[in-house]
Design goal:
By secondary structure, the protein is of the alpha/beta class. It folds into four domains: 28 residues, no CATH class; 339 residues, Alpha-Beta Barrel (TIM Barrel), CATH 3.20.20; 186 residues, Rossmann fold (3-Layer(aba) Sandwich), CATH 3.40.50; 111 residues, Sandwich (Immunoglobulin-like), CATH 2.60.40.10. It has 23 helices and 30 strands. The strands form eight sheets. Strands 11-8-7-6-5-4-1-12 form an eight-stranded parallel beta sheet. Strands 13-18-17-16-14-15 form a six-stranded mixed beta sheet, sandwiched between helices. Helix 3 packs across helix 14 and helix 18 packs across helix 21. Bound molecules: beta-D-glucopyranose (BGC). The site of beta-D-glucopyranose has 9 residues, from loops.
């Protein structure tokens, strides 16, 4: 049977144009395969276990060096017919080791048990971080700050290459949750707070991973996470309840997934938390009615880590595993990541045998899983081919990561300090100055990203990179993340230098351990800035943090500020090049940078009396209004400076009034009024002036990154389909309302109207 599928699949590749006929032939072979499978084999396909379960040693205490345990593999393949395995053993493997593992697993899986290849999945969320020597990229939040979908697609494409080079066909990425709660530990894994930016980048990522044909040996299946509402827990803690009105869910949290589904994403992972009181793993409404029926998703729905077990252990909506499995399967789960045991299989077998779940329901999920395996070419080539990846870890790939980091770096303050001349005597200090881990964050070689022994050899920290470019750089530690070290000595040293660079940072961490209780920088780091200010030298601050950390009180001591996000292995080079003017910053904030811990507001907030006042948008400012003006945020979403000086002029629309089926065509002239080549992100924001529900003050509707030579100008064209102005109205349905709008690009503004 497997042979037949492999033949049918390869026939398809040879005769792509006759696709439909061949696909249906493959489909019917998949159907016959399903018909030949036992209940146990079908349930096995729906099971994903962690590599620990088939490795020597106990779960979470694997023996080192890592080895597959053939007896345990035998149980997985011949007793439970497992369809999928995930993860590394807590540290990165060499490509050779990956090849050995995957080959061992596939040899067994294709010759014994169900004789169906296993699909291996991994979290390669900023490069193939569990493979030694792979290229690490900036984290997603930094990629979003590039505002350059080409850079983002490239990063995904190289990640797919490196993941494939490890013999793995499935990547649990991208994260398409919107970052609207910075205390939440996974903020940095997202593309930021805005729907349009995140959906544009999400689309680029899916393309980079899957390409036109995921069967290509350099491509992998994407897995969109974490469907849906995961990023907005009220408490700010990971996996705690989110309360999101349906209208908001639809207008803000679903579109990123919708766009990626339309782009052909092959799988989706479910939110471990609950939305509006219902754990998403048990929500038929979200997993079937919305995801399948409304968004039209045809791929595989995977649970997150032990989340069916958690329905009874943590959420208390079931009293045992069997009830939990019943709820999840009825809700629409296809594959269970029950990483540490076979409790899912045992429970589901009982449920089917008792007639509580129909075998035809299993068939639906198994079909989706087998189709994904078929689309990835696993039936034809289940084994890794070590020699197909000459560019693995190549300079060509590394330069793309460096470019991404350079395009991400965001200059938010510059009192004519940057770029620095290499003649200047520079003191560099602060916890971020000498750590690769603080630039990479979580999910770097280990889950938490905090073990230095696995760092990529030969990569330079910020202080090392500065020293490579200038002989006049001195480094002193000054402070750890949360305690001052030699601060007094560092101050003394500062007095002998022309400029002080202070690198502020955050502990690398992932998931729950990355949640924090306060956005303030630890006292020690704030103290370092205050103390060094006493030297009376210009201060340049570089932050490499997983989210915006409050700078309000220390910002006045800083003469220039560069936001580095988590720029990855090439971050040191990118930051040093930016400081010395070898890179002209062009990143823009993908989130609203908060000023106060307690004022969590996104740029696209609704009009309210208070926000209008605080933004100074009322026509006359009373004393009360004036008191609050400027308190809303430190820097707005989309903000970022350059060493060039850009000017916008002649903003024109092709019409003054549009039909709902029209596309708005925008033209604006962008001029580089400086003698430095630079890039600017032209952003188009629309404001609906009156709507049937309170409109947002503004929404990003289009953008384009433009490079200009010194003193060059360009006529830049942007397009906004009028249907993009839709919102979710009173009836909870998407509508475009006629009426008046403003459009702003740079500091220019114009009006238009939409007609019936
Ligand atoms: C995370 C997922 C990840 C999975 C597998 C979970 O704890 O929430 O994002 O893909 O583990 O490692």
């Amino acid at each position: 049977m497997i042979l037949l599928i492999a033949e049918a699949c390869s026939e398809k590749t040879n005769h792509q144009k006759e696709g439909t006929e061949k696909i249906s032939k493959t489909d019917s072979i998949i159907d016959s395969l399903i018909n030949s499978m036992s209940i146990e084999q079908k349930i096995g396909q729906m099971t994903q276990i962690n590599i620990d379960v088939i490795s020597k040693g106990e779960v979470y205490k694997l023996k080192s060096p890592h080895e597959i345990d053939s007896l345990k593999l035998d149980v997985a393949v011949n007793k439970y017919y497992v369809g999928s395995v995930l993860n590394a053993a807590g540290y990165p493997f060499s490509r050779q080791h990956w090849e050995k593992i995957i080959t061992t697993i596939q040899k067994k899986a294709t010759s014994q048990g169900s004789k169906i290849p296993i699909i291996y999945g991994i979290d390669a969320i900023h490069g193939a971080n569990y493979t030694v020597g792979a290229t690490l990229f900036p984290q997603q939040i930094a990629l979003a700050a590039t505002w350059n979908p080409n850079v983002v697609e490239n990063a995904a494409s190289i990640t797919a290459y490196d993941v494939s080079a490890s013999g793995i066909p499935w990547n649990f990425s991208p994260v398409l949750d919107l970052a609207r709660q910075p205390l939440w530990g996974r903020f940095y894994e997202t593309f930021g707070e805005d729907v349009y930016l995140a959906k544009t980048m999400g689309k680029a990522f899916v393309n980079g991973y899957q390409g036109n044909d995921a069967k290509h040996p350099h491509k992998v299946a994407a897995c969109l996470k974490h469907y849906v509402g995961y990023s907005f827990p009220l408490s700010g803690k990971d996996r705690t309840p989110a309360w999101i009105p349906n209208r908001v869910l639809k207008e803000y949290f679903l579109p990123t997934f919708k766009t990626a589904v339309e782009e052909g994403a092959m799988s989706i992972m479910v939110n471990s938390g609950e939305v509006n009181g219902i754990p998403v793993h048990a929500s038929h409404e979200l997993l079937t009615k919305v995801l399948r029926d409304e968004l039209g998703f045809k791929g595989v729905v995977l649970t997150d880590w032990e989340d069916i077990i958690k329905l009874y252990k943590d959420h208390h909506i079931a009293s045992n595993m069997k009830e939990a499995v019943h709820l999840a399967i009825n809700a629409g789960i296809d594959m269970s990541m029950t990483p540490n045991d076979y409790s899912f299989n045992d429970a589901l077998i009982e449920l089917v045998k008792e007639g509580k779940i129909k075998e035809t329901r299993l068939d639906e999920s198994v079909r989706r899983i087998l189709i994904m395996k078929q689309k990835l070419g696993l039936f034809e080539t289940p084994f890794p081919n070590f020699n197909e990846y000459p560019d693995f870890g190549s300079e060509k790939h590394i330069s793309q990561s460096l470019n991404a980091a350079k395009e991400a770096i965001t200059l938010v303050k510059n009192e004519s300090i940057l770029p620095l001349s290499i003649e200047k005597k520079i003191l560099v200090t602060g916890p971020g100055a000498n750590s690769l881990n603080y630039m990479n964050g979580g999910w770097t070689h280990t889950w938490q990203g905090d073990e230095t022994i696995y760092n990529t050899p030969g990569k330079n920290t910020i202080q090392e990179s500065l020293k490579l470019l200038s002989p006049n750089v001195t480094y002193m530690e000054g402070s750890s993340l949360d305690s001052n070290i030699n601060t007094a000595e560092t101050l003394k040293e500062a007095e002998n230098h022309d400029v002080v660079i202070i690198c502020l940072a955050e502990d690398p961490a992932a998931e729950g351990p990355a949640d924090i209780n306060s956005l303030d920088f630890p006292k020690a780091q704030q103290n370092l800035v205050r103390e060094l200010h006493k030297a009376g030298k210009p201060i340049v601050v570089v932050t490499t943090t997983a989210r915006p950390r409050i700078l309000r009180e220390i910002e006045p001591f800083m003469n220039a500020i560069l936001i580095g996000y988590l720029p990855g292995d090439e971050g040191g080079t990118a930051i040093a090049e930016t400081i010395f003017g070898l890179n002209n910053p062009s990143g823009k904030l993908p989130f609203t940078y908060p000023k106060y811990q307690g004022l969590n507001i996104t740029y696209d907030h609704k009009h309210t009396e208070k926000t209008n006042r605080f933004l100074g948008q009322t026509s006359s400012l009373s004393d009360y209004d004036a008191k609050f003006k400027g308190t809303v945020y430190q820097w707005n979403f989309g903000y970022g400076l350059s060493y060039s000086s850009f000017e916008y002029s002649e903003l024109k629309l092709d019409k003054k009034s549009y039909a709902k089926s029209d596309t708005i065509k925008i033209e604006v002239t962008l001029t580089n009024n400086s003698d430095i080549e630079g890039s600017e992100v032209v952003q188009a924001f629309c404001s609906d002036l009156v709507a049937s529900i309170t409109p947002s003050v503004k929404r990003l509707r289009s953008f384009k990154k433009i490079k200009l030579k010194p003193n060059e100008n360009k006529r830049v064209k942007l397009k906004i389909p009028v249907k993009e102005l839709a919102f979710v109205g009173i009836e909870n349905k998407w509508i475009v309302e006629s009426g008046d709008f403003t459009l702003s690009v740079g500091d220019l503004m114009t009006n238009f109207s939409v007609n019936e």
